[in-house]
Write a structure and sequence with these properties.
CATH superfamily: MFS general substrate transporter like domains
Largest sheet: none
Number of strands: 0
Mean pLDDT: 88
Number of domains: 1
Oligomer: single chain
Order of helices and strands: HHHHHHHHHHHHH
Domain Major facilitator superfamily (MFS) profile: 1-351
Strand content: under 5%
GO cellular component, one term: plasma membrane
Shape: globular
CATH class: Mainly Alpha
InterPro entries: MFS, MFS_dom, MFS_trans_sf, MFS_YcaD-like
Pfam family, one: MFS_1
Transmembrane segments: 12-38, 50-70, 82-100, 106-128, 140-161, 167-186, 214-234, 246-264, 276-295, 301-324
Radius of gyration: 19 Å
Low-confidence stretches: 1-9
Structural class: mainly alpha
């Protein structure tokens, strides 16, 4: 029996896993509100798509910048206080954006808050992987994925209801981030920190050689998610799709994530995970070509293909996390997850 099991018993891990997943769902809600809120306000402030693109790039750069150092941070600070700090910094960023309507300052704050959010995701994903028994890991991480997607979708609905003007949507974003602290007050086991001598950036980079297929999965997911979230509606518009239909692609993708993660998670606990990863990868390669062939012919066909594209793309990342838990020890998981998220950030930049 491992250290976590000894300290918590059979049900103790479930409380902490629930806390981490609920926190991530709340963070997802702040994302779903914050992404369109910032983009639309930047559009009003500048009238430039370039400003929006640079702002998105700054978030990806923050991921690449902090991921190699995240395991060292996890080795030095207990996970719950660390996550609370990250959440409060994210909450402050919403207030900052409203106080200072300046493109340059927004760029800096997007980078700083991106550092905190990257550490938050590395910590929460490592924590859930450590806590979950091997035979349940794929299903538990699929629950994590669905919670994040559902939160994102709810955030998008909230900003549509609140609008983008004035203090209200920004204060709502800050409040949502602050509410993420509440699940972390539940009792349960802490994350098992990595050894300090295994947390240098050089060690993190060594995981590219130890698990190249897993790391390539992170790169692919970064490109897929960024393309689906930021560029697919624009591509659809330019290809001749009606504006309202193109905007609905985002909702279709979110439904694809929610609908397909449970089947992928179940299969991930029943069959060879490398083969399942390959299937998801092939699906995401074929889907864009199929969309290009059907756009202008059938909107329903485009929606159906995009549903599969985004859902299977999310499956790539979840299976990569599952394979990290399968391949590496609990103390190695933080470093391996940091390497995966570093590749995700690079994929986001090259999408």
């Amino acid at each position: 029996m491992d250290k976590i099991s000894k300290e918590t018993g059979e049900t103790g891990w479930k409380t902490s896993a629930f806390a981490a997943i609920l926190m991530v769902a709340i963070v997802g809600m702040s994302f779903g509100l914050g992404v369109p809120l910032l983009s639309m306000n930047l559009e009003l402030m500048t009238g430039s798509g370039l400003a929006i693109g640079i702002n998105v790039l700054s978030a990806a750069l923050s991921t690449v910048a902090v991921a190699p150092f995240a395991p060292k941070i996890l080795a030095r600070f207990p996970v719950r206080p660390l996550l609370i700090f990250c959440l409060l910094l994210a909450a402050f960023s919403f207030v900052f954006y409203r106080l200072f309507e300046n493109v340059g300052l927004w760029l800096i704050m997007r980078f700083v808050s991106g550092l905190a959010i990257t550490v938050l995701f590395i910590a929460s994903e490592t924590w859930i992987s450590q806590l979950t028994p091997e035979h349940l890991r794929a299903r538990m991480l699929s629950v994590y994925s669905v919670a994040l997607a559902a939160g994102f979708g709810l955030g998008g609905l909230l900003v549509a209801w609140l609008g983008i003007a004035g203090w209200v949507p920004f204060l709502a974003g800050a409040l949502i981030c602050a509410l993420g602290v509440l699940p972390l007050l539940l009792p349960g086991p802490q994350l098992l920190p990595p050894d300090l001598d295994e947390t240098s950036p050089r060690v993190i980079l060594s995981y590219f050689g130890k698990a190249p297929r897993i790391m390539l999965a992170g790169l692919a997911f970064g490109a897929i998610e960024t393309a689906a979230t930021h560029f697919s509606p624009i591509w659809a518009l330019r290809a001749g799709m009606e504006q309202a239909d193109a905007i609905r692609l985002i909702a279709v993708g979110a439904v694809g994530v929610i609908a397909l993660q449970f089947p992928i998670g179940w299969l991930g606990d029943k069959m060879d995970r490398h083969k399942l990863l390959l299937i998801c990868g092939l699906a995401t390669l074929v889907a864009p070509l199929a969309m290009w062939m059907t756009i202008g012919i059938s909107t329903l066909a485009v929606y159906s293909i995009f549903f599969v594209y985004v859902g299977m793309g999310e499956g790539i990342y979840i299976l990569a996390l599952v394979l990290i838990g399968q391949k590496f020890s609990k103390k190695e998981m933080a470093a391996a997850t940091a390497a995966l998220i570093l590749m995700y950030g690079l994929g986001s930049m090259v999408s």
